[in-house]
């Protein structure tokens, strides 16, 4: 009996779909699976221990132990999708890899990849990198027990599956469009030849902002400090991260071609002065649209969609959505009423102070005070909503106190959602802020009439944005059969559904509990079981 694909939980639909395809199609584990990290991602385990895909659990190794071959692409963490697409193409066609050492469980990284970014930045030289070619970049990392892959090169005879987290999905969408249509004069070296989108068999996206995310707007509202002060902080962080050569960096921004690196003989103080300078490399990067911040915004992804194809008719697409929210309480919770009743001044004293000097008959005043006193401050809970009261406390009390003390912060108001109790602590503020972040009129115009719910989120990306590019999505529940050899199965994002157990970090296994770790591992195993059975 066929498994149902209409469960509210997208992970259940994924499991059921993988089970059905497993029954009808053989597995082909010879096609490598390319993992593409999202914004702020990395390649080799961070600090030697934390994998981007899996956290302390090594998902690539887990898959290799089951016979798959995995390639992890260490594309730049905060760069544009154009830069990341160029890097990804070069890493997959370089012909050599950094190797995962199964004996020591470590990565023997090599830094010799050259990347050409073409003429993409020529239109705006004031906000362009200092160089359009960079050298000494990381090789992609190969995890495989097969002897046929060390010199493997991506081409029509050597196809791939892509599994993408967050921004990685838009990076791959850009790359596939360049492979399909070419880039003309923007990049005659990498993308002069069209018709190569069939080098890819499938793309699976996890929490990808296919239509952008409001987190940048939420953070800008929270940090009301001047842009110049923010720029100074960014410059210091960039200088600290980029002072040493790439091989010695704890976290590599990969912005050397922007001049965000140490010059020969330069001290840290000299580098810091250069980074903080007006019109310096950080200023050029930060005050432009040529960065990952813009490329993940609603405006940035809309611009991307105007320039590229959304899907290829040669490729299978699957998407999974997530959220980490609970609805904001509609009624006053019991603790809220208790808190109101514990207000530091008795309502009787307050009323006497307010109406005590009004010339009314004494017995009437006493009766009025007694009537309100019997209700207590609970009166507030009957006349105003919990959310409205929370908004007043936030705006009129807490934010004002912080600002008077010199903190340049504007706390987010209560919104439609609050963070789930199991959300990773670092995401608590962003889940909360995005749960009340209003779209601007311009953003609503870009997104079109069918907005959906742009408050629900996973801490980084709005859930509404994760299903796929606009106009290219179908629910997996509408899948008529499990024969993926039929051409109508390609060129459309099959949305597997929404999971309400994972936040943005859980999707890749970073800082999760045992129960969520099990779900995360099962998710990746089901994905690879599904895509490895698709027709090549």
Automatic annotation (TrEMBL):
Q: Which part of the chain is the Lipase-like C-terminal domain?
A: 31-319
Keyword Signal appears in the UniProt entry: yes
Chief site of localization: secreted
Could you tell me which SUPFAM superfamilies the record lists for this protein? alpha/beta-Hydrolases
Q: Which Gene3D superfamilies match?
A: alpha/beta hydrolase
Q: Which GO terms describe its biological process?
A: lipid metabolic process
The molecular function terms of the Gene Ontology recorded here are: hydrolase activity
A Pfam family (short name) is Lip_C
InterPro entries according to UniProt: AB_hydrolase_fold (IPR029058), Lip-like_C (IPR056304)
For whether the record's keyword set contains tRNA-binding, the answer is no
An example Gene Ontology CC term for this record: extracellular region
Compartments, record wording: Secreted
Keywords for this protein: Hydrolase, Lipid metabolism, Secreted, Signal
- This chain belongs to the protein called Lipase-like C-terminal domain-containing protein
């Amino acid at each position: 009996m066929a498994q149902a694909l209409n469960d509210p939980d997208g992970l259940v639909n994924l499991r059921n779909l993988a089970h059905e395809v497993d029954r009808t199609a053989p597995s082909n584990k010879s096609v490598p699976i390319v993992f593409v990290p999202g914004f702020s991602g990395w390649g080799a385990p961070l600090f030697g221990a934390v994998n981007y895909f899996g956290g302390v659990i090594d998902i690539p190794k887990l898959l290799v132990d089951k016979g798959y071959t995995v390639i992890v692409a260490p594309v730049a963490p905060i760069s544009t999708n154009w830069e990341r697409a160029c890097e990804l193409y070069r890493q997959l066609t370089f012909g050599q890899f950094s190797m995962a050492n199964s004996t020591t469980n470590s990565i023997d990284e090599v830094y010799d990849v050259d990347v050409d970014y073409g003429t993409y930045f020529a239109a705006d030289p004031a906000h362009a990198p200092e160089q359009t070619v960079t050298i000494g970049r990381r090789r992609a990392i190969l995890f495989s027990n097969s002897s046929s892959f060390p010199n493997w090169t991506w081409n029509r005879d050597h196809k791939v599956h892509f599994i993408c987290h967050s921004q990685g999905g838009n990076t791959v969408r850009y790359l596939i469009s360049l492979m399909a249509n070419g880039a003309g004069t923007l990049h005659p070296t990498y993308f002069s030849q069209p018709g190569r989108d069939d080098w890819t068999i499938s793309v699976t996206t996890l929490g990808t902002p296919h239509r952008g995310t409001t987190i940048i707007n939420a953070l800008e509202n929270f940090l009301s400090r001047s842009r110049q002060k923010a720029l100074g902080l960014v410059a210091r962080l960039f200088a600290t991260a980029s002072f040493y050569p790439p091989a010695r960096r704890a976290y590599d921004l990969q912005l050397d071609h922007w001049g965000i690196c140490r010059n020969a003989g330069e001290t840290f103080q000299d580098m810091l002065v250069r980074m903080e300078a007006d019109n310096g490399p950080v200023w050029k990067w930060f005050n432009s649209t040529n960065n990952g911040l813009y490329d993940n915004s609603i405006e940035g992804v809309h611009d991307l969609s105007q320039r590229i194809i959304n899907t290829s008719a040669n490729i299978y697409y699957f998407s999974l959505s997530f959220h980490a929210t609970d609805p904001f309480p509609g009624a006053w919770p019991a603790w809220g009423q208790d808190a109101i009743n514990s207000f530091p001044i008795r309502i009787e004293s307050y009323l006497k102070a307010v109406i005590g000097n009004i010339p009314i008959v004494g017995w009437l005043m006493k009766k009025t005070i007694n009537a309100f006193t019997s209700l207590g401050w609970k009166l507030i809970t009957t006349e105003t909503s919990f959310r409205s009261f929370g908004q007043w406390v936030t705006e009129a009390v807490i934010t004002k106190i912080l600002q008077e003390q010199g903190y340049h912060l504007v706390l987010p108001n209560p919104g439609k959602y609050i963070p789930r109790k199991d959300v990773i602590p670092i995401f608590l503020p962003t889940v909360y802020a995005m749960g009340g972040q209003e779209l601007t009129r311009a953003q609503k115009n870009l997104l079109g009439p069918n907005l959906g719910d742009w408050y629900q989120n996973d801490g980084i990306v709005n859930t509404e944005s994760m299903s796929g590019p606009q106009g290219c999505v179908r629910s997996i529940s509408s899948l008529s059969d499990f024969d993926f050899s039929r051409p109508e199965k390609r060129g459309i994002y099959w949305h597997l559904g929404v999971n309400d157990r994972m936040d943005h970090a859980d999707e890749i296994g970073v800082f999760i509990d045992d129960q969520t770790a099990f779900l995360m591992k099962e998710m990746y195993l089901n994905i690879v079981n599904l895509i490895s059975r698709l027709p090549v």
